[in-house]
């Protein structure tokens, strides 16, 4: 069964392609490689064999070509999007245009070619700073603090409104908490361009000497150690959750929104300490100012995904950090050769 994976050469997309293939699906990647690299395909193929890939921008009408060529697409998983929070503030039109148009263009193709299922990459960013913890799928969405966050909210609404219109489509919106780690083989992982925005790539790059020091953004939050709390989930767990979501849609599951997290929160300092401990590396870090717009603490109520999808994150934080470190060492090695 063919599953179209937009953004399939990206971080979560590439791991999901591997999980889909291992589950017996035929993933078809659509990616324009603006924020990913061709060598990701080599990594994927070294794990699961040849995978079809179309190099195109799925916010453009040319996407329809894929549906015309590939008969009987069974489902789509829509990862393709711009995702850098700070950049989204500087380039709002690029973010709205790319993230929203790609969702609309894909939905139009799904309806036209009678593809019955879509899984959408949403984000815990839609909850903003939650009033109560853990956040459930019923927790209110807050006005997003970034253009990036707003594009996710708008895309969620576009999909939900399409369902309400009576379209012959089933959908599930997956709200990711903080994906980290890499495939344990270190054949695929995250490839941040330039200076990483996210914590774990910054940690591994600092440990590898690519960055001079890690700055911990703020130590005066209302948390046990003063640093912000997030729910960090191994990217392989996340990838497997997409397969579970697809199967859920196939068997007629009717919940449209699902948190994907571990249900447990960890502070920035806990990440740093755990990394140092399990990887045996000392990190050069210091405390700095808060990063504007950062949420103080958030973690998922992960029970709905467990009940409905039968999904529970099974990898530990230590495993995720070790896999991230293993991947960083592979990158360092490749850079040297
Ligand atoms: N963070 C940090 N230094 C960095 C990058 C991130 O202290 O160089 C902190 C950030 O303030 C946040 C946490 O790490 O509290 C996770 O940040 P990330 O950008 O990975 O995820 P998000 O804030 O979008 O959940």
Descriptive account of the structure:
- This protein has 337 residues and is of the alpha/beta class.
- The protein folds into two domains: 2-182 and 232-262, 3-Layer(aba) Sandwich (Rossmann fold), CATH 3.40.50; 199-228 and 264-299 and 316-336, UDP-galactose 4-epimerase, domain 1.
- The chain has eleven helices and 13 strands.
- Helix 5 (92-112) packs parallel to helix 6.
- It starts with a strand and ends with a helix.
- The mean pLDDT is 97.
- Bound molecules: uridine-5'-diphosphate.
- Uridine-5'-diphosphate binds next to helix 7 and strand 8.
Strand fraction: 15-25%
Shape: globular
The largest beta-sheet arranges its strands as 3-2-1-4-5-6-11
Given helix and strand content, the structural type is alpha/beta
- How many domains is the backbone divided into? 2
Task: Please tell me the overall pLDDT.
Answer: 97
- As a whole number of angstroms, the C-alpha radius of gyration is 19 Å
Query: Under the CATH scheme, which class of the largest domain?
Result: Alpha Beta
CATH fold field value of the largest domain: Rossmann fold
Number of helices: 11
- The CATH architecture of the largest domain: 3-Layer(aba) Sandwich
Helical proportion, percent range: 40-55%
Condensed summary:
The chain is an alpha/beta fold. Helix content is 41%, strand content 17%.
Secondary structure layout plus pairing:
Elements: E1 2-6, H1 11-22, E2 26-31, H2 39-48, E3 52-55, H3 64-69, E4 73-78, H4 85-90, H5 92-112, E5 117-123, H6 147-164, E6 170-176, E7 178-180, H7 199-207, E8 214-217, E9 229-230, E10 232-234, H8 235-250, E11 257-260, E12 266-267, H9 268-279, E13 285-288, H10 303-309, H11 317-336
Parallel strand pairs: 1-2, 1-4, 2-3, 4-5, 5-6, 6-11, 7-10, 8-13
Antiparallel strand pairs: 9-12
Helix pairs in contact: 1-2, 1-8, 5-6, 7-11, 9-11
């Amino acid at each position: 069964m063919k599953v179209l994976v937009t953004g399939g050469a990206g971080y979560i997309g590439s791991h999901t392609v591997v999980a889909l293939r291992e589950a017996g699906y035929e993933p078809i990647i659509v990616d324009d490689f603006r924020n990913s690299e061709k060598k990701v395909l080599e990594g994927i193929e070294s794990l699961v064999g040849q995978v079809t890939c179309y190099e195109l921008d799925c916010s453009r009408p040319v996407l329809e070509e894929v549906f015309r060529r590939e008969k009987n697409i069974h489902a789509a998983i829509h990862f393709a999007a711009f995702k850098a929070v700070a950049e989204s503030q500087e380039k709002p039109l690029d973010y709205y245009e790319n993230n929203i148009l790609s969702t609309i263009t894909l939905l139009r193709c799904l309806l036209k070619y009678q593809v019955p299922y879509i899984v959408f990459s949403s984000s815990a960013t839609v909850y903003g700073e939650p009033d109560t913890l853990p956040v459930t799928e019923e927790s209110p969405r807050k006005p997003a603090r970034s253009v990036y966050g707003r594009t996710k909210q708008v895309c969620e609404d576009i999909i939900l409104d399409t369902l309400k219109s009576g379209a012959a489509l089933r959908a599930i919106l997956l709200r990711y908490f903080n994906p980290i780690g890499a495939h344990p083989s270190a054949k695929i992982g995250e490839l941040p361009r330039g200076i990483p925005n996210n914590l774990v790539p910054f940690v591994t790059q600092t440990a590898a000497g690519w960055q001079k020091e890690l700055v911990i953004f703020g130590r005066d939050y209302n948390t046990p150690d003063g640093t912000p709390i997030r729910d960090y989930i191994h990217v392989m767990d996340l990838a497997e959750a997409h397969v579970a979501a697809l199967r859920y849609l196939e068997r007629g599951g009717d919940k449209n929104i699902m948190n994907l997290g571990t249900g447990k929160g960890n502070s920035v300092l806990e990440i740093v300490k755990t990394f140092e401990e399990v990887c045996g590396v000392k990190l050069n870090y210091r405390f700095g100012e808060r990063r504007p717009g950062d949420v103080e603490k958030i973690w998922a109520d992960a029970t709905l995904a467990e009940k409905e999808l039968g999904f529970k994150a099974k990898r530990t934080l230590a495993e995720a950090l070790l896999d991230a470190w293993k991947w960083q060492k592979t990158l360092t090695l490749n850079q040297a050769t």
